[in-house]
Design a protein that fits this description.
Elements: E1 4-7, H1 17-32, E2 36-41, H2 51-64, E3 70-73, H3 78-90, E4 94-97, H4 101-113, H5 129-137, E5 143-146, E6 152-157, E7 161-166, E8 174-176, H6 185-194, E9 199-203, H7 207-220, E10 231-235, E11 238-240, H8 248-251, H9 255-260, H10 265-274, H11 287-293, E12 304-306, H12 308-320, H13 324-333, H14 340-346, H15 356-364, H16 374-383, H17 392-404, H18 409-420, H19 428-444
Parallel strand pairs: 1-2, 2-3, 9-10, 11-12
Antiparallel strand pairs: 4-5, 5-8, 6-7
Helix pairs in contact: 1-10, 1-11, 6-7, 10-12, 16-17, 18-19
This protein binds glutamic acid.
Residues 8-10, 42, 184, 188, 202, 206 line the site of glutamic acid.
Amino acid sequence: MTVKVRFAPSPTGRIHAGNVRAALVNWLFAKKNQGKFVLRIDDTDLERSTKENEALIETDLTWLGLTWDERYNQSLRFDLYQKAADYLKEIGRLYPAYETAEELVRRRKVQLSRDLPPVYDRAALNLTDEERTALEAEGRKPHWRFKLDGKRVAWEDLVRGHCEVDTTSMSDPVLIREDGAFLYTLPSVVDDLDMAISHVIRGEDHVANTGTQLEIFEALSPMFADADLPTFAHMPLLVGADGEGLSKRLGSMSISQMREDGIEPLAITSHLAKIGTSDPLEAAPSLDSLAELQDFDKMGRAPARYDFDDLMRLNAQILQGTPYADIKPRLEAAGADLGELFWDTVRMNLHKFAEVTDWAAIVSGDITPRVDDKAFALKALELLPAEYDRDSWKAWTEAIKTETGAKGKALFMPLRQALTGLDHGPDMGALSFLIGRDRIAQRLGA
Ligand code: GLU
């Protein structure tokens, strides 16, 4: 079987971690199975979809490395949806209904007060031709409902195992609104069939949809040369570190925001690929290596914990593991390419790449040194070797120790503070060499 999957975002806003996880898992699954990854812009909602959001989705996916093999806009495929709707009408599975929203609310209330399930009562199915004509003469426009079979729909879910949805407990879904607009359900099924999507991988918030969609798939399959129905995988949703629903802050954190904040794309993808699975939460060297690991058997039923601290830990891991040759272009672009020794010295201290410019300033720019004990600093200055090379730190600090009696933190902290202005940082042997004798002298004398 040829694997073909799709990521189907609605361009009604920016994409966030939850959407990207769906995109990523689809992409990894396609990669692992030599399949195709389709980007399908679900822009049937013409009022809320924007081209700007669509462009941002593409920018975000591209930045994350999630490139696509095929790309579609649902808004350009209305003819096909209309054909499918006509076919469903022909076989008696799509029927017009005329109730207003208020009427439906009222009926639901009555049903609930009688302890009946608030399911659409299919009154529209009993309308005679005359009644329909009369309603239309009143100016009412129909919306169109799919007639469910009212049976148990079952599928083998790659994550959830055997699943069943009882469609008798569901209202016949509205596929087309009064104004003729196609709602999400029909275009989604039509496209999955038309594009020969082999696997539908999405969040478990779609499980109930799958019940109704499977009936629509079955009804429409003959229109598509009896196309096979896709296999489904419904992933548990993301929750925040506290186990509660993804907090506002994280839920609304768009990928563009993370990009601006200097988070590495591979940190985001490593994190999202591994949370909620049995794999250890570690940074991966590449998307391909993440694809190797992809396996729905590793995905549990419990929600995946999205902890921003974990993401930042992976971010640091990635920077720390990046060799100079790979990072050189970025260092150049940031005006912080001070050579391999510089990168190897500072990378262990980076949480975000942008911090590299702070270290570059410490090595080759102006900083405010911190000198609390002037006498100590002047003594250190006095003992500073005339030539300062890669090994001078050891000899220099030995000499200061002998002369002042200071040792341990009392010896090293004032030197670090004077030379870098900070209390912490990389190994001072290499860093002081990079800073160089002139700057050291200047900072001690400050
Ligand atoms: N546009 C839908 C969404 O973003 C697609 C869901 C699906 O994968 O079928 O929720």
